[in-house]
Task: inverse folding
């Protein structure tokens, strides 16, 4: 942690050829956690994400959907932005390559390159012939190794590709091989993990080819001034986002601060896009006289049950569904805890449930609730007296936390955790914190505070123990806040603290003020049932529900957000992502009957398109059962099951109430059962 100037951190900008994927969520969560950890360590950071929207694939998809390209891009880009909001990603900017600021910036970079000379005095950009296998259906060139043999077939269309040549502009990458090698070997451009660095160096040693930076046949892109029927090659276009977002077009103050003046220009990427990022991008910038990135980290691949994630085989993990079902904290925690960042790892539903229950519900959740409940019981719900320091022997939390050491001194827990975040060892940082969670849980058992409470003479001892325990909880919540922002902020609120976004100053022992009343205590992570390990994230949307926290809002299976640091609600307004948690669907009533012993309740069997459900509705006083059969109603489809008069209800029928009399919501045109209502 010695660099000067702010951290400028980016994720790849994601293709809008499809909806977000768990791999996209993985990179973006890691980027958010690193940014938050930097801020927690008292350093400045800026996080950029966005969407990559040009190219022939987008042209084709929009054509197939029969809508303009821009409309398609708006739709999918919105899905990414929405997912990031629901995952509590605090990005500072979101760039789209169809924005004007991007196009102007990309053209400025293009202009600089067209004028640039290589170290040996040649034009950095030149006209040349691009030759390759062209698929008329894709309207694009395919790499030779992508083709299906025999017959040189396009992998997407199974149609023969034609050998075609076109005049393009090329970038003289070969002239920058020696420079790239030196920058990478010396770590001035640092590539992690080390295996990836070696891979890049091996590519350089194998010889770098000049590459084409314009395309003649693609229309959905940024036309170049030299030849307006050409557009900028989609990778050149996409990579330039990292500077265009900061206002490169006009050298804005933001660009000067976060790119030119950054302590680190750091790109998080996946292992699939290393060559573009670690070779093309620095060379393009260097040739144009623009500062180059200082650091790359390439993450590994998530597989599911040992297999590649693929829509065609149905082996998918839907991040939107995961967040809806388990909440943002659990998803953030699992993705970063389960695998080692930088390596490949396998996602299994069972391990998600195990980690949720063992780590979040049992270890952390129980520690917080036991500590707070004892304070309610034995200290009148107020922070007890602060004991003197140093005390409590080597086992004492405050001693080992070592707040007297500097935050980046790894001899204390605080320094170790912050350093692990810093080196993107997220699972290591969490393991470190969890060793303290276990330590404190054990201390509760060995110290038996309930026995101290029985003996009036031990009151001071009890107070000292509980104060230390609460401080432990507070420091743990603070250190884990980059990964679990909601749980951390809820814990700090329960501790009666006004500040719920911890800062470096909060990572000191003894900040709790004796006499402060605790906030309302509620469970952090209610346990999941074993049966919840079914087709997670990939299950169809109509499903049995998760157990809920008593404090959970209707339609959500995870506890409500704390008021800060991520306000899900502003005043009494909710964010669109909160509304998106409620799954509303058209249901057609198949059968209806009164429930014996109840004046108000009807048992309905409804058709939800591909599923039948039993629902109990309190509309018997307004509707005769036989009048309901065949009617289409609106159903809240993702409510947890509830029993009413002993009858299970899987959802809720929407109705207005006029003087206590139910009036059903209906439709003024024909709609199919199962249709989503938004
Ligand atoms: N648009 C380009 C990037 C341009 S950046 C200038 C692109 N987009 S992408 O939508 O395909 O996203 C790629 C990134 O998503 C990967 O680099 C990786 O970070 C992440 N992942 C996609 N699938 C993944 C897994 N199965 N596992 C882990 N991460 C993966 O490439």
Result:
């Amino acid at each position: 942690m010695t660099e000067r100037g702010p951290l400028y951190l980016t994720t790849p900008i994601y293709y809008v050829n499809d909806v977000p994927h768990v791999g996209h969520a993985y990179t973006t969560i890691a980027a958010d956690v690193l940014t938050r950890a930097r801020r927690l360590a008292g350093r400045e950071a800026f996080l950029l994400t966005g969407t990559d929207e040009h190219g022939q694939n987008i042209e084709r998809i929009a054509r197939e959907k029969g809508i303009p390209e821009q409309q398609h891009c708006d739709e999918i880009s919105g899905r990414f932005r929405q997912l990031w909001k629901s995952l509590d990603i605090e990005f500072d900017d979101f760039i789209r390559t169809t924005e004007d600021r991007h196009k102007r910036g990309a053209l400025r970079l293009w202009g600089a390159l067209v004028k640039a000379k290589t170290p040996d005095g040649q034009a950095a950009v030149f006209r040349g012939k691009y030759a390759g296998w062209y698929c008329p259906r894709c309207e694009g060139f395919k790499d030779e190794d992508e083709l299906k043999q025999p017959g040189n077939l396009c992998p997407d269309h199974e149609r023969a590709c034609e050998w075609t040549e076109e005049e393009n502009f090329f970038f003289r990458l070969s002239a920058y091989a020696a420079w790239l090698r030196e920058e990478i070997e010396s770590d001035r451009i640092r590539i992690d993990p080390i295996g990836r660095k070696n891979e890049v160096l091996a590519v350089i040693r194998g010889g770098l080819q000049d590459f084409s930076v314009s395309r003649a046949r693609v229309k959905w892109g940024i036309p170049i001034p030299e030849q307006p029927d050409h557009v900028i090659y989609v990778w050149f276009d996409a990579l330039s986002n990292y500077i265009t977002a900061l206002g490169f077009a006009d050298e804005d103050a933001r660009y000067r601060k976060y790119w030119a003046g950054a302590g680190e220009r750091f790109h998080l990427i996946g292992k699939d896009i290393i060559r573009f990022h670690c070779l093309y991008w620095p060379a393009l910038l260097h040739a144009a006289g623009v500062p180059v990135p200082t650091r790359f980290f390439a993450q590994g691949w998530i597989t599911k049950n040992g297999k590649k994630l693929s829509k065609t085989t149905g082996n998918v993990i839907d991040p939107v569904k995961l967040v809806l079902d388990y909440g943002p904290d659990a998803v953030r925690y699992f993705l970063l805890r389960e695998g080692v960042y930088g390596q490949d790892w396998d996602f299994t539903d069972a391990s998600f449930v195990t980690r949720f229950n063992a780590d979040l519900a049992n270890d952390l959740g129980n520690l917080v609730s036991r500590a707070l409940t004892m304070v309610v019981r034995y200290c009148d719900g107020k922070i007890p007296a602060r004991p003197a320091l140093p005390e409590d022997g080597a086992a004492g939390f405050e001693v080992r936390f070592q707040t007297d050491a500097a935050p980046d001194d790894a001899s204390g827990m605080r320094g170790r955790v912050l350093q692990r975040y810093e080196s993107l060892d997220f699972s290591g940082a969490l393991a470190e914190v969890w060793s303290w969670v276990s330590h404190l849980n054990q201390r509760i058992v060995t110290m038996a505070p309930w026995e101290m409470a029985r003996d009036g003479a031990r009151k001071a001892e009890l107070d000292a123990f509980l104060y230390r325990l609460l401080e432990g909880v507070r420091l743990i919540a603070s250190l884990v806040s980059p990964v679990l922002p909601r749980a951390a902020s809820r814990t700090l609120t329960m501790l009666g603290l006004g500040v719920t976004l911890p800062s470096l100053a909060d990572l000191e022992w003894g900040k709790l003020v004796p006499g402060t009343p605790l906030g309302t205590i509620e469970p952090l992570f209610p346990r999941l049932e074993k049966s919840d390990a079914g087709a997670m994230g990939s299950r169809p949307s109509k499903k049995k529900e998760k157990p809920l926290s008593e404090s959970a809002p209707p339609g959500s299976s995870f506890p409500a957000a704390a008021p800060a640091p991520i306000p899900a609600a502003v005043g009494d307004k909710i964010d669109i992502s909160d509304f998106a948690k409620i799954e509303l669907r058209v249901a057609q009533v198949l059968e209806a009957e009164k429930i014996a012993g109840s004046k108000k309740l009807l048992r309905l069997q409804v058709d939800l398109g591909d599923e039948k459900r039993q629902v109990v509705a309190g509309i018997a006083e307004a509707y005769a059962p036989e009048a309901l059969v065949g009617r289409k109603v609106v159903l809240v489809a993702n409510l947890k099951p509830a029993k009413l008069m002993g009858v299970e209800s899987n959802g809720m029928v929407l109705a207005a109430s006029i003087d206590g009399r139910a009036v059903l919501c209906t439709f003024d045109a024909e709609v199919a059962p199962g249709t989503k209502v938004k």
